[in-house]
Write the structure tokens for this entry.
Amino acid sequence: MIARTFKLSNWLLLSAAVVFLAGHSTSSAASSRGPQEEKPIEEVVANLAAGRVIVGVFKDGIIIATVENAIEPGSLTPPIVPFTNRRAGVVLGAAEFVSPSSRQVLVKLSVDLPHVRGDAPLSTQQPHLIEPGDAKNATDIEQIGLGLMNRLNESVSQIHSELHFSANDPLTQVVLADYIEGYGPEVWFLTYTIQQVPERGDFWTTRVRRPRYVQFYPPEKKDPHTLMEFDYPPEADTVTLRDMMLAHDPRLEKLRTSSPEMAGVVDSILRGDLEKSFVASGVPYFKAATDAIAPGSRKQIAVLGLESGFSWVVAPPREAKPRTENAADGQAAPTSQRPADAPTLQKP
């Protein structure tokens, strides 16, 4: 199968939460005539979506599962975001931007992602079909990527403190899975990094670079059709679900021997011909396997059916509506602000 792709180098992931310093501004007149008067600094908090994303492309659909990694207070289960019946995404890294003073969520990517579209010119190296002369460039993927870049820039443009990010440290990452008419299933991985430029003193300007695109599905010719996994943050000793199967992890071996259907899914994953199996056999295994390797962790599982479209297997819990302060009982509205001792991206 022809791939709509251009391959890019790997990047480093960062395992801390984000505290961005905003409102550290002065007027140009003051800076030219006398001592600067700094306004109070407002901390804009970015909550992280951290955990494991597992994607399997079956004969009649795509299964997407996410499992939380509670790396800090306030961290989020990587949210599965339906765009349409034919496309869904998962957000990793900085996923929500919150104002502690107003206790309001300023940006929530799980809500914004299906609606973002880029207005910047397309790059000359956009994701594309590699066969020369084929007009089906992946402009849809790049428009989503650029739209999310614009949304992120609305938040980071107010960061004026040095964050000590390397050029490869990601701010946010997105897994995209979809079906393209006349092409088939595909899985993309987008990563966003930031660039900071010193202006004067300790005042920095911050912007989000264009995203990097890597297409994971369809695989290269002769490569196996098996599970794809993405983790935030990365760990040097991270073991994928497939590697656990190969190592005969007792938790997964118990599932494999529980029924012929379970054994069939495992064998298909290990052989690398998962595209010959059906979603109906894969869903029970995904549910049981994620429960086995991460008992008690929050998770989400969804299916992009070739015929049926998007559906939830394990849906996220409904968000509770904020309560206003009750004068009778003295209880205040809940806050989106994370605890003060939560780690930050302000590297030493």
